[in-house]
Design goal:
The protein is mainly α and about 350 residues long. Helix content is about 75%, strand content about 0%. The longest helix is centred in the C-terminal third of the chain and has 32 residues.
């Protein structure tokens, strides 16, 4: 019964926060409003919680939505993404080096804790790997949670204030629940389940997102379906995603939050500056716009940044591909690179 109350608190607060942000016309209202309400409640001593199964289902819905952005006409453009992926790799390396050095100096973190707190992606994997190598799991988890929270808040408001870009109404980019056909729903449900199972067996990161996304992308690229998840379901997925971020701060006091906030703000600022610089350089000598490149390079969560791209009317397929590549590379490369650094420093 206590857990049910925690679920009700999280969903109720998320709905209230999302509704308020929607009414006052703030960017990405359902995710950011839910995130704000549940974060404040968690820091205030409440115990909001999002059921893991519900979050997994909603992440799967987001995967289907992201995959629906891969239309057949996209095949001619995918080959031209190599330059941006190379720049992304270089920006990731620079981010990891500078943020690690900053966290060691500004927050006094150990080498292993700072390294895995600075790695730009794969929160669960970085916490587990960093902890296994002797790092502080709580610090690593909080650093990544604050990174995602700050980036998800900063980017949409930055677009609104600096570029005067407003959110695109969800009904214009998604379908409607009233128009949902039975056959389309069954095909996409089957592909989501099959994609998630295969991604889990292949041990892909964020498999509940990447599996349905790749399955949906395959069907759309082949021209077998034009299905898009209804806007009402995507709004619910945003609400659950935002509330789940806020619930990560359960059990954290305002004092502990303040202690972690200073290094997190500095680290996030470094990431944003490097991402913006890389986006500006590439935009200067390519046909890609600065706006879409910034969304592709900023190291927020995969689902969160893709929702931001959707809300701002940017190229969701381009953004989602870059974030999946970023997270996969971080998860694959971070542990062996850290061990190599450790061996080299031990010898010296």
């Amino acid at each position: 019964m206590r857990r049910v109350r925690s679920w009700a608190v999280a969903l109720g607060l998320g709905t209230a926060g999302g509704s308020l942000f929607f009414l006052i016309d703030l960017p990405l209202p359902w995710m950011l409003g839910a995130l704000t309400a549940t974060t404040l409640a968690a820091l205030g001593g409440w115990k909001p919680e999002i059921p893991a199964n519900l979050r997994s289902v909603m992440i799967g819905v987001l995967g289907l939505m992201l995959g629906s952005a891969f239309s057949p006409d996209l095949l001619g453009r995918i080959g031209r993404w190599s330059d941006s992926l190379i720049v992304l790799l270089l920006a990731m390396a620079a981010t990891a080096v500078l943020v690690t050095a900053y966290l060691r100096r500004a927050a006094g973190m150990s080498r292993v804790t700072a390294f895995f707190a600075a790695a730009p992606g794969g929160i669960n994997e970085m916490v587990l790997t960093g902890g296994a190598l002797g790092g502080d799991e709580r610090t690593i988890a909080l650093s990544h949670s604050l990174r995602i929270l700050l980036i998800v808040f900063t980017v949409p408001f930055g677009y609104r204030l600096i570029a005067h870009v407003h959110s695109v109404p969800m009904g214009e980019s998604m379908g409607r629940l009233a128009d949902l056909g039975g056959m389309d729903a069954l095909v996409m449900l089957g592909s989501a389940v099959a994609g998630a199972v295969l991604a889990h067996l292949a041990r892909l990161p964020a498999w509940m997102l990447t599996g349905p996304m790749m399955a949906s992308a395959g069907l759309h690229l082949a021209g077998l379906t034009a299905f898009r998840p209804p806007a009402e379901l995507v709004v619910l997925a945003q609400l659950v995603t935002g509330a789940a971020i806020g619930c990560r701060f359960r059990g954290l006091s305002w004092k502990e939050m303040a202690v972690m906030a200073r290094p997190a703000l500095g680290a996030t600022a470094i990431m944003l500056v490097l991402s913006a610089g890389a986006a500006a350089l590439l935009a200067g000598w390519s046909e890609l716009s600065f706006g879409v490149l910034l969304l592709a390079f900023v190291p927020g969560g995969i689902a969160e940044m893709c929702l931001v791209a959707l809300a701002l009317g940017q190229d969701v397929a381009f953004v989602s591909t870059h974030h999946v590549v970023r997270v996969v590379l971080v998860i694959m490369l971070a542990p062996p690179i850290f061990r190599m650094i450790e061996r080299r420093e031990t010898r010296s």
